[in-house]
TrEMBL record, chains A, B:
GO molecular function terms attached to this record: DNA-binding transcription factor activity; transcription cis-regulatory region binding
Residues of the DNA-binding region: 33-52
Protein name, entry field: TetR family transcriptional regulator
Organism: Rhizobium lusitanum
Species classification: Bacteria, Pseudomonadati, Pseudomonadota, Alphaproteobacteria, Hyphomicrobiales
Gene3D superfamilies, alphabetized: Tetracycline Repressor, domain 2
Keywords: DNA-binding
Record-linked SUPFAM superfamilies: Homeodomain-like (SSF46689), Tetracyclin repressor-like, C-terminal domain (SSF48498)
Length: 200, 200
């Protein structure tokens, strides 16, 4: 077989993952077969299996690729200087999620729900997600800590509580969006602003 | 067949659903067979099929039963007079979810994730969930409206935004708890309190 460049390998890998996400949304993780994905990818069976020897490996790669793709977009928000206020942070993170997950023919938010479900049965998948969400939450805590220092607010509860609250908000936004189809970053952010500026 | 009382029917139905939830947590919705559930229930195949003619009907019943069981516990919180402040509402709802979902041998929070996933492929299931979460969100909005009147706060954004934010928080709590295993109502509530009482 002729050698192909790293760039071409990455493009083919992405092409297979795109095909897999489309099939997963249509059929679910379990009913989707490698043959379905091969057909949808337009590549040969040999080519697809050379990248992903099993469906489990493909599922893991599909989850990892979506989590790390999202991370690269969200990290600059979490590390912004000066730190963003929590409502603004939520607005920009959910907005980024919306833009990153809405694709031609499928929505990665719906596929996230399939992934969480699968993680209940697959230890390696659960471990991968756990490590991603732990990191995300700890970056959220740092962002909150920097924002509080900026506001000269060092009293009270640890940042980790606020980070757990914000992570719930973001994860719940994904669920609400996938199931109810009618939420928007603006609405959830206005709601948080309303809560954070109570008029007595 | 001898007639059995309504009470006994309800108890048997609950016994079958208990068995189903246990199997679903162990094997997932798809790998679980009616035979698995029959075995776990300790009832005859005829008895189980007389309550639930198909696995799809059983899945629907398992979801509906858990949603309506939770509703009956959460409604008094949403309708409390005077209305609970949002952080207290979140604390008591997530606490209720924790107590309702933690069972002998399985956790309904994990099974909720399986249900959301299945709803991506089953329209009737998605419609059932949609209607439940819409109702929940609109009750949240009423609770917030009553709380704001109580606080003489009638300015600014509509309650529906706050309700969408609170629903995200609650749904995200379920995800975070099922995947990360380490959140508690107290932590998420302290985080929200911290956000709602910023020190300038």
């Amino acid at each position: 077989m002729p050698k192909i460049s790293d760039e071409k390998r990455a493009a083919r890998r992405a092409q297979i993952l795109e095909a897999a996400w489309g099939c997963f949304q249509k059929e679910g993780l379990h009913a989707t077969t490698m043959d379905d994905i091969i057909r949808a990818s337009g590549l040969s069976a040999g080519a697809v299996y050379s990248y992903f020897p099993s469906k489990d490996q493909l599922i893991m790669a599909a989850v990892t690729a979506s989590l790390s793709g999202l991370t690269s977009l969200v990290e600059p928000l979490l590390r912004a200087e000066p730190a963003l206020a929590p409502p603004e942070l939520v607005r920009r993170i959910t907005d980024t999620i919306d833009r990153f997950t809405t694709r031609d023919g499928y929505d990665l938010k719906r596929i996230a729900l399939l992934g969480w479900s699968e993680a209940q049965r697959s230890e390696p998948l659960k471990a991968t997600m756990k490590s991603f969400y732990f990191d995300f939450r700890s970056e959220l805590a740092s962002a909150v800590a920097r924002w509080r220092r900026h506001k000269s607010d060092t009293t009270g509860n640890p940042e980790s509580d606020v980070a757990a609250t914000l992570l719930s908000l973001v994860l719940g936004y994904v669920v609400q969006s996938a199931i109810l189809d009618d939420v928007e970053p603006e609405g959830v952010t206005r709601g948080l602003e309303r809560l954070t500026q109570p008029k007595g």
